[in-house]
Amino acid sequence: MTRLRFSVAIAALVAVASAQAAELPEPIKQAGVLRLTVNSTYAPMEYRDPTTNQLVGLDIDLANEIAKRLGVKIIWSETPFAELIPSLQTNRADFIISGISDRSSRREAADFIDYLATGPQFFVLAENEAKSPIDLCGKKVGTTRSTSFPVEIEKWSKQNCEASGKPAVQYVPGENSIDVRNQLKQGRIDAAVQGSETLPYAQGQEAGKYRIVGEPFATGYQGIMFRKDDVALREVVTQHLAAMIADGSYKAILDKYGLGANAVAQPMMNASTQ
Fold this sequence. Notes:
Elements: H1 3-19, H2 26-31, E1 33-38, E2 41-42, E3 46-48, E4 55-56, H3 58-70, E5 73-78, H4 84-89, E6 110-118, E7 120-125, E8 140-144, H5 149-160, E9 170-174, H6 177-185, E10 191-195, H7 199-205, E11 210-213, E12 220-227, H8 231-247, H9 249-256, E13 268-269
Parallel strand pairs: 1-5, 8-9, 8-10
Antiparallel strand pairs: 2-3, 3-4, 6-12, 6-13, 7-10, 7-11
Helix pairs in contact: 1-8, 3-8
């Protein structure tokens, strides 16, 4: 199914929901809580505020607003990125909203409601001489091992480096974005890749430390991830997300984190082509 058809399907869902609101699954309604888990190393999407140690971020704000409209509270937990999908599959989390990309390989047992445009982007230390991404051919480039970025780096390298007779990018794995940035600062890698939504925050936190090289070299979406059989929960969350887009509260949250340009016009189901 094409992205357009999915978007139409979501729009139809919202239209129906306006006449008859979708209902929360009874167990969640009875408990009055959502159980959500995040990987809190991906600022500004979700992270621990260094001054208060409170869990904050764009995803946290979005989820809290959705929960408020649903009339429930959230019990938050934290886990490594690689454990996010298992936590959904084993019912430790009701859904996942934690900077996770919608990828076709992740849809065998789950559906995504896409809510944020994203894309991998190269960056280097400010003193690095690389002027464009092609200057990174043959260099050591780090990124988080459990994301889609290693595959995207390999694809980019084949299309741009190897196709023009240059040496391939040397991919170096990292545990998370903090680890990757530390490797860069320690000189263990020449460049790094993170989602375009995280780099403005990193640059703001360490002014003058990093320099972005080129534009995002792939496009995709981050999504709220649901088990395929949790149709009712998926529909009611989608309904409220669509309402937040319509009334401007969604855009206000994105603007708070400097990511208004990453907004989507409406929720989209399984829209990424990655």
